[in-house]
Specification:
Elements lengths: L2 H7 L7 H12 L1 H15 L3 H10 L1 H4 L1 H18 L4 H15 L5 H22 L6 H17 L9 H15 L4 H16 L6 H10 L3 H7 L6 H24 L50
Helix pairs in contact: 2-3, 2-9, 3-8, 4-11, 6-7, 8-9, 8-10, 11-12, 12-14
Pfam family, one: MPAB_Lcp_cat
Protein name: Peptidase
InterPro entries: MPAB, MPAB/Lcp_cat_dom
Length: 300
């Protein structure tokens, strides 16, 4: 018996989407959601209009770890405490301030939002220790729809299927190679590899490339990883899922009582987070003084 699945089954995915999402991301699948959202953001760098701005700010070149930690912690704060809670509202203000400096199209913002919904769904379909319930999938959609509204994103589709269709169509028409995709992609692969001991970093780089689908590889201009690396990586993730599923079934692995959301005690940029920190302490610095004005939002 899974107390969290039982709890989810008693909730409404529209009305109770925050609680359901909090259970899925914080109690049932915290490791998987973290990995899936890392690759969701990575996926957005396949769009040249997105990568060009990121490349121009030089954040990924100069401070990739802080850029990663700011995004991860701000989104976790919103999920952990609720988008209308004091901490959630403060985190959203930081997110909106960061994005509000730059000339970002609504469609690019909408696409990034869509990856937060569907990339974790797709990851858990492949590598989850149990499948997501339909209520969990719908709750993720409704949760990010409300977050998107509070970020000022317009024209968010009204159904799970419509938003999925938007994401697929956007990728088909906007994923294409550019040098800024390649540079931001390389910075990101380097960041992921830096989390491993130095002697393992070449293998980690191959491992990251093995997780990218052909559309992403083409958009980044990356060579595919050797087939054996892809096979080993996929096998390892599926073996982990089976082992966890078995552990839950026999009671060796018990349902997590404490949520992992916004509880990154070993955070690389903010040691001991969240102790001693507020959401307002997070966020990227002001744009570089020499940034081309084309990337800045007009104040007129």
């Amino acid at each position: 018996m899974n107390v969290w699945v039982d709890r989810i089954s008693a909730l409404d995915p529209v009305k109770d989407h925050e609680e359901i999402y909090r259970i899925s991301a914080g109690h049932e699948f915290p490791w998987d959601y973290t990995r899936a959202l890392e690759f969701a953001l990575f996926r957005t760098y396949c769009v040249p209009s997105i990568s060009a701005l990121l490349d121009a700010t030089r954040e990924f070149r100069d401070r990739p770890q802080r850029r990663y930690d700011d995004t991860a912690l701000l989104m976790a704060e919103i999920a952990a405490h609720g988008y209308d809670s004091p901490r959630g509202k403060e985190a959203l203000r930081v997110v909106n301030r960061m994005h509000g400096r730059y000339a970002i199209s609504n469609d690019d913002m909408l696409y990034v939002l869509s990856t937060f919904v569907y990339d974790p769904v797709d990851w858990l379909d492949r590598y989850g220790w149990r499948p997501l319930t339909e209520a969990e999938k719908l709750a993720a959609f409704h949760y990010y729809r409300e977050v998107g509204r509070r970020m000022g994103i317009r024209d968010i589709p009204s159904t799970f299927v419509e938003f999925r269709s938007f994401k697929s169509a956007y990728e088909s028409s906007h994923f294409r190679f550019s040098e800024t995709n390649r540079r931001v992609g390389e910075y990101t692969v380097g960041l992921f590899a830096s989390w491993f001991p130095r002697f393992l970093r070449p293998l980690a780089r191959l491992g990251v490339r093995s997780m990218l689908d052909p559309m992403m590889l083409n958009a980044f201009g990356f060579r595919p990883a050797p087939r054996w690396v892809t096979a080993v990586g996929g096998f390892s993730l599926k073996a982990r899922a089976r082992l966890l599923g078995w552990g839950r079934t026999v009671g060796v692995v018990r349902p997590r009582k404490v949520s992992r959301l916004a509880q990154e005690a070993r955070n690389r940029t903010y040691p001991g987070y969240p102790t001693g920190y507020e959401p307002g302490d997070l966020g990227a610095p002001e744009p570089p003084a020499d940034l081309d004005p084309q990337w800045l939002r007009s104040r007129s």
